[in-house]
Every structure is written in structure tokens, then in C-alpha cells.
Amino acid sequence: MYAASFNIYKKSAAAQFSLLPPRRDENGRVSKNGAVLVEMAPSIGEKTYDWKNKKLTFAFGVNDLVQFFDDPSSGKWGSFLHDNDGQIKKLTITPGEGKYQGTYMMGISSGDARVSVSLSAGEFHTMGRLFNFALPKILGWDGV
Amino acid sequence: MYAASFNIYKKSAAAQFSLLPPRRDENGRVSKNGAVLVEMAPSIGEKTYDWKNKKLTFAFGVNDLVQFFDDPSSGKWGSFLHDNDGQIKKLTITPGEGKYQGTYMMGISSGDARVSVSLSAGEFHTMGRLFNFALPKILGWDGV
Amino acid sequence: MYAASFNIYKKSAAAQFSLLPPRRDENGRVSKNGAVLVEMAPSIGEKTYDWKNKKLTFAFGVNDLVQFFDDPSSGKWGSFLHDNDGQIKKLTITPGEGKYQGTYMMGISSGDARVSVSLSAGEFHTMGRLFNFALPKILGWDGV
Amino acid sequence: MYAASFNIYKKSAAAQFSLLPPRRDENGRVSKNGAVLVEMAPSIGEKTYDWKNKKLTFAFGVNDLVQFFDDPSSGKWGSFLHDNDGQIKKLTITPGEGKYQGTYMMGISSGDARVSVSLSAGEFHTMGRLFNFALPKILGWDGV
Questions:
Q1: N or C terminus of chain C with fewer C-beta within 10 Å?
Q2: Do D and C touch, counting CB pairs below 8 Å (3 needed)?
Q3: What is the DSSP code string of B32-69?
Q4: What is the pLDDT of residue A105?
Q5: Helix, strand, coil shares of chain A as percentages rounded to 5?
Q6: C-alpha C84: how far from its chain's center?
Q7: Sheet holding A113-119, edge to edge
Q8: Which residues are CB-neighbours of B44 under 8 A, at least 6 positions away?
Q9: Which of A8, A16, A19 to mutate to test the interface with B (most CBs of B within 10 A)?
């Protein structure tokens, strides 16, 4: 069954979160953990985003969740790195300051490409609740 | 399978919360997100409510949940708007003050019609826990 | 499928928590909400309890959960009443004071009969987590 | 279906957490509660651990979860004992101090054997979230 994505549509860019289930071999064993797939694209007009040419993706996996569940007030929180054979991808979540206290900027960068979007406190907490739900699903613990 | 609603029955009015599952197309893809359906009606006697003539409903969807999960102490929290082709429906949740600290008033208004009901702290927290449970269900993430 | 109960065995008494699923009619509609069944009995020897003659039970339902999820520090928290045609049953959860801070006493009384047991902070929190899990199950929301 | 384990791989040792479902008899009744199986082994080279000769295991069951959900700031928190016919196994989780505040050391000891591994705050919280998910599963409450 195919689930819907959690969508954040803003003026300058959009982000979509989908749940990727773990892959299983013919015996039902998890052969690859699942992830929360984050897809982002910049806008190219009102409520239109360039998913075709400028999409950046980041498969937020178990190790990323571990870091996400760390204390957000710790200095090093909010930087998630994937190294695919030397190609570095980075997802960053940066807490706002001053009048933006409680909000966040989320960005994905890969080489020279970069997309970022602002998150309200509600969007950030919704993301965290979905991440919490996803954690055991990604490991296949719900099917035990 | 049909679930039961979470019911709040007070002297002046009643509220019922039901979980609407996402709609799926013939391939199992989510074609429309689910929601928590909030139904309210004023009382017309002891433990009797005018569900037939005065019912107001509000399908509390993903965007509403995002706002609900925002910080309740922020000034703008608690106002949820649906615009159906110019017809405005509004659900409001207002924190009590003074000796009503910890309790809430919840109301739905549509045009001139309005129903509202008081929520104890326990009822408000129960609603929040059901909303948290509903979030991934509404997107179909539990079926992945 | 039959689940196991969460058991608290102490010197003077024991408590067992089981999940009662909602009852459904032939169309799959919930015709009666489920509950968390609390069963308690006093001890009649080492690790032996008088389940046969002195068992007291309390079906902790949705309304009880609503009260449980209220603020425990509010003065009126912790008293749960069931009135079955004039026969009053009462479950009480009383926070400890002084050196018992963080622990609780839980008791069921029905007429002259009464059983009570002490809860460590961990047992109380475990009970709360199971109550949180049970809430949507009791309403059948997990089957939607 | 077989789930994946949650893995913590460090320089000196590794820990793996798996969900053991409850055992059921031919009528579907839970005959033995499940557990979260913790397996640990010391390293014998870069990213290689001696699972064959030096593995220590600890089946973290309902009683252990109850203690885990107790207040971590209480003095006696973090020591979990299993006595199998006089053979004592011990799992300990020790909060770090000073500059290690927020992190933990986790160890399993059995007789003279002992393995221990450090947990970041994120790893500790992830473990706690998995324990919370596991609690009703271990009792079979999800199948009710």
C-alpha cells in the first residue's frame, strides 16, 4: 500500500516526507532498513516547484534519527551527512534565533545545489512525531 | 471496520471525534488524506443534543494537526480555518484563564451558526493523544 | 489472540492489567468500547494471592483515561468512580508524600471490600504508557 | 517476519537491540512474554567484533522496562539484574558526569566477563523510544 507524503509548501521551496519501508528478502528478513525520504525542490512560480530538474533528496535513516533524537540545544545538533563514495550530501536543520525562536530552517545540499525551506514550530514538531512513528517501522519492529 | 468516537458530553453541547481513514485508489495509493472528524451539537434537553438540525462538523486534517502541534502558549495558537469556496468554517480552541487555567473552550462556527463546549485538562490531553495517534494513520503511514 | 497482563506483585497484594478490546457487532461496528481491566487481590502467603475469594476488578474505560490524563498535581486527581445501579466501585491512585514522593498507592474498593498496592515510580509510568497505548485501541481507532 | 536490530557500533565494542515477540501456545495465548534482546561484544579490529567468543546477552523484559521507566535521576536507577539459578547477569546504564553529562555507559557483566559501550544522548533516547514501542508488543497488547 502506498502512503501519502507529509508536505510543506512555502513560497520559495517545498519539502515532502515519505516513509520508505524496510526491504525484505524472500524469507521475510529485513535486508535493508527503511528510511524517511525527504525530497525538496525550489519554487518556479506560485505553488509550483521544480521537482523535475532541481529536486534534492535525502534518505533520513536510523543513524540520522539517532542524531535527530539528540538534544537540539547541544551545539552540534542539526547536521546530517551522507557520504556516497565521496559524494557528500548534507541535510541541515537550523534553529531560528531572536524573533524566529521556535522555528527552523531545513536545507539539503549536494555539491553546488542547495534548497532550503523554513519550518514553523508546528511543522518541526509534526516532523518529529512522524520520525518517532517511523523509527520502529524502519527497523521492521512493527511486523514482529 | 468501524471505530467508536471519542465523546464529550456536557450540559450545553456535545463533541464527538472520529477517525476518517485516508481514501485509496484501486492501486492502494492514498488519493485523499484522512482526518479527525469533529462533530458538535447544542443540547436540547438532558443528555440530548440536536444532532439532526444543529450539527456542525469540522474535518481536522494534516494542516490543522500541524498548527495544533505548534506551541499552545504562542499568541496565535488555537484558530483553525477552512475555506470551502468562500464559505468559511472555523474551529477554535481557547485556553482558559484565571481559575479556568488548564481548561479550554472549543467551538465550531460556520456562517451564523456556532456551537461550543468546555474541555477539561484531561479531555484536552486525551484529544491531543488521539491527534498524535491519528497523524500517521491519516497519511497512511501505518500501512507501509 | 490473547495478550499477557502487566503484573505488579507485592508482599501484601497484587494488581494485574489486561487490555479488553472493544466489542463489535456483525458489521464490524464497535458496539461497546474496550477497557483496561484492573484486577487486584490481597496476598495469602508468599507470592500467593487470593484471586478466588477476594478479587476486586475495575474496568478502566475511556472516561477514566480522560481523568487519568488530567494534571496529577491538581487536587482532585486520582479518584475514579463507577456506579453500577447504585453499587459504587472506586479505584484510587494516591501520590506518596515525603520520602514516598514519586511513588503511588493504588486501591480498589467495593462496599466493605478493599485491596491496595504500592506502585513504584517505574510501575506508575509503565501503567501510564500502557494506558496511552490502550486509548486508541479501546475505541477501535487502530482498525480504521 | 524478521526485524532488523538497532545497532550501536563503537571503537571498543558493539551493542545490538532486537525485539523478541511473546511466545504463544496453540490457542494464541501468550505463554511467555517477549523482551528486547541486548547483545554486546568487544571489538577485535576495525569495525569487527568478537560476536563468536565474547558475546554477552541480556533479555530486557517487562520488569526491566518498569525499572528503566523509573526516574533516571533517582540514585538507584540503571542497574538491572537477572538471576538464572544463581548465575547473576547484570546490565548497567550509568549516566555520564561533567563533560559527559547527557551521555551514558552501558555494560553487561556475567561472571568475570564484561563488555561495555558508550551511548550518546541520541542513542540513549532512541533506545528509550524503542523500549516504549516494545512494551505493549512484549505483552502482546498490539494483537488484541
A1: N
A2: yes
A3: E--EEEEEEEEBSSTT-B-TTTS-EEEEE-HHHHHHHT
A4: 97
A5: 20, 45, 35
A6: 17
A7: A79-84, A87-95, A104-110, A113-119
A8: B50
A9: A19
Amino acid at B47: K
The number of beta carbons lying within 10 Å of the beta carbon of residue A126 is 25
pLDDT band at A30 (very low <50, low <70, confident <90, very high): very high
- Give the three cell numbers for residue B90: 472555523
pTM: 0.96
ipTM for the complex?
Answer: 0.94
Q: Write out chain D residues lying below 8 Å of A69, CB-based.
A: 122, 125-126, 129
Q: Which helix (H) or strand (E) holds A67?
A: helix A62-68
Nearest by CB to D121, from A65, A71, A140: name it: A71
Q: Phi and psi (nearest 5°) for B141?
A: -70, -20
C71/B126 Cβ within 8 A:
no
Question: Residue B52 carries which side chain, given as an amino acid letter?
Answer: K
Closest partner residue to C67 (CB to CB) among B21, B34, B122 is B122
Query: What are the pLDDT digits (tens) for A104-140?
Result: 999 999 999 999 999 999 999 999 999 999 999 999 9
Q: Is A100 an 8 Å CB contact of chain D?
A: no
Question: What local confidence, expressed as pLDDT, does residue B71 receive?
Answer: 85
Per-residue pLDDT, averaged over D105-125, amounts to 97
pLDDT of residue D13: 98
Q: D30–C3: do the CB atoms touch at under 8 Å?
A: yes
- CB contacts < 8 A, A to B, total 63
Q: Answer yes or no: do A130 and B132 touch at CB < 8 A.
A: no
**What does the pLDDT read at residue A99?**
92
* Residue of B25, B63, B66, B93 to mutate when probing chain A, most A C-beta within 10 A: B66
Q: What burial class does residue C18 get, using C-beta atoms within 10 Å of its C-beta: 0-12 exposed, 13-18 middle, 19+ buried?
A: buried
Share of chain C above pLDDT 70, in %: 100
Q: Which of A34, A102, A130 sits opposite B136 (nearest CB)?
A: A130
The answer to whether the beta carbons of residues D36 and D20 sit under 8 Å apart is: yes
The CB density around residue C26, as the number of other CB atoms within 10 Å, is: 6
Average pLDDT over residues A20-47: 96
Which amino acid appears at position C143 of this protein? G
pLDDT tens digit sequence for B49-107: 999 999 999 999 999 999 999 988 877 899 999 998 889 999 999 999 999 999 999 99
Residues A121, A127 contacting (CB under 8 angstroms): no
Distance from CA of C144 to the nearest CA of B (A): 6
With beta carbons less than 8 A apart as the criterion, state whether C144 and B140 touch. no
The pLDDT value recorded for residue C40 is: 98
